[in-house]
Structures are given as structure tokens and as C-alpha cells.
User: Which sequence fits this backbone?
């Protein structure tokens, strides 16, 4: 879990993913020699802060978004949300600006209409436009890992585990997912037009709910705010059964992912969201069962060989 711990502490809110992009490029360069297949690496001009890894003759792509939720400093000590972070008063936020490192507190203010807005508490004024993220406090025990940004650093970690033995496939590290997306369309275009890839797995983290529980296996989402093609979902469920992988089925009417962006693209992609479920969504204390993480990796490895 040391790699996951490190990933959870990298400053990479939506729109400012470059630190994690550079970290991943360095990690891939240092570790790819031990992988079963050496991937072609696509990044830089035309890809913004995204990365694509092409292994062998790909049929299926894994999408894992690298951005996180957070806050942007506005004016007069006000901060505004990046994505949908939980706003718990007293939460520690970190970042840096032209004057140095920042560790401040979140302050919640309710106006006369009952609407909330947010300010930072710090000994000095922070440069406007500075982005702030939750401070990492990574806790691991025998059964669980807990930290901010398990969504989606755990999805990124999962993709890196799969990369070690992947023979044929694409791994996409995408941006902006938490704040509405924007990169998946051109990534899909590139892989569809160049390699004919048109099916995807979304390596992301979902929620503990009445129907998806802790320790019962990785969640295969049949739908959220988007509805993937049922024949593709049925195929994935059948393969999970064949592989003897512990899973549970998710059906929700809210939430979204890179899969929704794929569905809205002009390319005929099938997609399925598959991920471990977490407690305390979009908070500084997201918590995931380690057995569910293990089943997530096993299912991705199996599917990338069989789809």
C-alpha cells in the first residue's frame, strides 16, 4: 500500500493534474522494464495532462481519472468547490501559492436563505486562483485503508497493478472527471481511430449503499446516471462468474464517471464501471476494504484477458 499512500498525497485537483501526470510518467519509466509487455506511451502535445499506454494489440481500454476534488481560492477569503467535496467545518486544506506552503482550515458560512458558502482560515491572504485539497492522513490496518482521494487514486493504483502483466490493452489516465470531464472524448477518438478499440472498463471507486456493502467484493455497476449497453454488462457479469471473482451488482440513479463521457462521445464505445466501494465519499476519510481491492484487481486482470 506504499504506492497508494504516495498517490493519495499528490496535489492534483481537476484542472491542475500535472504533478500526478509527471509522477506517473516517472513511475512508468522506472518500472516498465519489469512488466510483461513494454507499452507505447502517449502523452504531451495533443493529450494535455492525460497519459495513454498501449500494450500489444488492444481490444479493451481501462480509464482511470487522475484528478481529485478540492477548492479554488476566490476573493475575500472565499473558496469555491472543485467537483463535489464534502464541506465539513474544520477540515484541513493544503496547497501552495507565491508566498509559500499553505495549511489552512475550512470555514462554513450559512446565509439568510440557508445557502452555504465557504472560506479559509489562515494567518495571511492566499493568492486568488490557488487550489486547495484535503490534507492526507493515510491509515492502514489489517482489513481497511483510509485516506482522502481513494477516489480515484485507488483506481489509478489498480490500473498500475494490471499494467504489470497486461499483454493487450490500453490504459488511459484521464483528467477533469470530478468537475464534469473533458478529456475522455479525445482519448476515445484517438484509440478508436488508430487501434479500433471500442470497449472500456472504468477503474473508479463507488459508494457503500444499501445494496453495495463492505467486504462483499468489487462492484459491477449496471447503471448510475448513465446506462451502459446491457449485453456488454451481461458479458462482464458472466466472465466474473467464470473467473470465480467475488463481486456485487450496483444499480443507482445518480453519480457518473468517465463512462458517461464515453457514452456521450460520437464513438460506439461499450463501457462498464467496476470498482471497490468506499465509506465517507468525497471526504478526507474515504475508507475501502482491502479484500474488495484485491477482487477489483483480479477482475480487471481477468477481463482484460477475456474481453
Assistant:
Amino acid at each position: 500500500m506504499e504506492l497508494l499512500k504516495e498517490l493519495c498525497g499528490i496535489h492534483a485537483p481537476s484542472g491542475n493534474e500535472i504533478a500526478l501526470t509527471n509522477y506517473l510518467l516517472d513511475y512508468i519509466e522506472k518500472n516498465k522494464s519489469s512488466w510483461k509487455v513494454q507499452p507505447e506511451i502517449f502523452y504531451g502535445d495533443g493529450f494535455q495532462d492525460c497519459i495513454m499506454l498501449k500494450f500489444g494489440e488492444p481490444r479493451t481500454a481501462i480509464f482511470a481519472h487522475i484528478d481529485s476534488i478540492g477548492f479554488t481560492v476566490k476573493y475575500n477569503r472565499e473558496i469555491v468547490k472543485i467537483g463535489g467535496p464534502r464541506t465539513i467545518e474544520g477540515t484541513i486544506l493544503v496547497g501552495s501559492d507565491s508566498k509559500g506552503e499553505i495549511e489552512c482550515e475550512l470555514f462554513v458560512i450559512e446565509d439568510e436563505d440557508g445557502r452555504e458558502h465557504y472560506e479559509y482560515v489562515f494567518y495571511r491572504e492566499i493568492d486568488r486562483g490557488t487550489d486547495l485539497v484535503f490534507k492526507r492522513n493515510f491509515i492502514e490496518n489489517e482489513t481497511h485503508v483510509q485516506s482522502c482521494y481513494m477516489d480515484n487514486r485507488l483506481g489509478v493504483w489498480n490500473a498500475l497493478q494490471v499494467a504489470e502483466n497486461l499483454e493487450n490493452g490500453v490504459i488511459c489516465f484521464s483528467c477533469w472527471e470530478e468537475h464534469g470531464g473533458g478529456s475522455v472524448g479525445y482519448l476515445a477518438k484517438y484509440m478508436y481511430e488508430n487501434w479500433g478499440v471500442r470497449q472500456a472498463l472504468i477503474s473508479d471507486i463507488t459508494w457503500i449503499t444499501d445494496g453495495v456493502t463492505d467486504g462483499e467484493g468489487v462492484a459491477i455497476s449496471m447503471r448510475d446516471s448513465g446506462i451502459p449497453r446491457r449485453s456488454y454488462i451481461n458479458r462482464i457479469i458472466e466472465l466474473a462468474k467464470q473467473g470465480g471473482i467475488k463481486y456485487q451488482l450496483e444499480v443507482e440513479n445518480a453519480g457518473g464517471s468517465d463512462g458517461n463521457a464515453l457514452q456521450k462521445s460520437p464513438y460506439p464505445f461499450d463501457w462498464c464501471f467496476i470498482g471497490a466501494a468506499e465509506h465517507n465519499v468525497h471526504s478526507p476519510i474515504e475508507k475501502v476494504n482491502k479484500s474488495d481491492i484485491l477482487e477489483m484487481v483480479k477482475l480487471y486482470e481477468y477481463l482484460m484477458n477475456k474481453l
Summary: The longest strand covers residues 100-110. DSSP finds seven helices and 19 strands in the chain. The domain at 70-134 is CATH 2.40.30.40 (Elongation Factor Tu (Ef-tu); domain 3).
